């Protein structure tokens, strides 16, 4: 990992990786959000409205999208994790939680492994929220990124979360599909860091009742990943339930983060 530039600041090349969703200098804790395959920091734009003033939210921005559209995409999921971890490290001056949605949960897990390699970060990292994702050590047989275009599109439609206009408009589809397919490739070819030793923090899994992409048993295996408390919260909705159920999701995150942050380190 790169050098830490000073606690509570955010300057230098790593700044491209993180987007502050709303500056809250008096917040007592931070929440770092990592988006799904094909997603961007903009997926979390409404989160500050749902979070209380004592939580400051930051979203990770992957290369090749939004303000980083001219940058080449990452070559591996480990590259994404390293970039995000280097950017997050300077912010660990107060209790911090990481939430990853779908592929973002896999990246979040690897980010935490990198950050926790420095014992000085363990006190600040208090909670991990894995949203709509199977545990890293759960076998994943299907290689969606290798599917022909129509079958690949059908998977995206079935999971939800993709604007129908994007899939219907050829120019937009040609721009979007290579990005999301490349992200699927990163996630599906990634070899995860072993889950032992378990993470020294609390962990909450969030799943949707109608999510066709994540089996409940696969999500429940996140319990093996933590040495702290484990909770599994099930909310109404499909794979992208956080967008439709934001107030409920934010309520769970707030409650769990506050408990973890208050626990003596």
Write the layout of secondary structure elements.
Layout: E1 18-20, E2 29-34, H1 47-50, E3 55-60, H2 77-88, E4 96-101, H3 103-115, E5 125-131, H4 149-159, H5 164-168, H6 170-189, E6 202-208, H7 216-220, E7 230-235, H8 241-244, H9 246-262
Parallel strand pairs: 2-3, 2-4, 4-5, 5-6, 6-7
Antiparallel strand pairs: 1-3
Helix pairs in contact: 2-3
The structural domain count equals: 1
CATH architecture: 3-Layer(aba) Sandwich
Oligomeric composition of the shown chains: single chain
Question: Which superfamily, in CATH terms, is the homologous superfamily?
Answer: Alpha/Beta hydrolase fold, catalytic domain
Helix content: 25-40%
Strand percentage lies at 15-25%
Question: Poorly predicted ranges (pLDDT <50, ≥5 residues)?
Answer: 1-9
What is the arithmetic mean of pLDDT?
91
Number of helices: 9
Structural class: alpha/beta
Distance between the termini: 24 Å
């Amino acid at each position: 990992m790169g050098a830490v530039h000073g606690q509570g600041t955010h300057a230098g090349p790593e700044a491209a990786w993180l987007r502050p969703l709303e500056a809250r200098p008096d917040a007592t804790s931070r929440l770092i959000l990592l988006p799904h395959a094909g997603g961007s920091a903009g997926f979390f734009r409404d989160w500050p409205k749902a979070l209380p003033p004592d939580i400051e939210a930051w979203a990770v921005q992957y290369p090749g999208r939004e303000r980083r559209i001219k940058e080449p995409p990452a070559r591996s999921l480990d590259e994404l994790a390293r970039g995000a971890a280097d950017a997050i490290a300077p912010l660990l001056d107060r209790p911090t939680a990481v939430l990853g949605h779908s592929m973002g949960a896999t990246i979040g897990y690897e980010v935490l492994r990198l950050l926790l390699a420095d014992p000085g970060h363990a006190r600040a990292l208090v909670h991990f929220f894995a949203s709509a994702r199977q545990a890293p050590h759960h076998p994943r047989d299907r290689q969606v990124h290798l599917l022909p275009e129509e079958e690949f599109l059908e998977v995206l439609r079935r999971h939800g979360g993709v604007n129908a206009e994007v899939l219907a408009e050829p120019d937009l589809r040609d721009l979007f599909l290579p990005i999301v397919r490349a992200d699927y490739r990163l996630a599906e070819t990634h070899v995860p860091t072993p889950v032992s030793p378990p993470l020294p923090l609390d962990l909450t899994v969030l799943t949707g009742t109608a999510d066709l992409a994540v089996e409940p048993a696969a999500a429940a295996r996140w319990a093996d990943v933590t040495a702290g408390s484990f909770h599994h919260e099930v909310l109404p909705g499909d794979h992208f339930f956080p967008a439709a159920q934001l107030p409920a999701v934010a309520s769970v995150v707030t409650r769990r983060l506050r408990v973890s942050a208050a626990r003596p380190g």
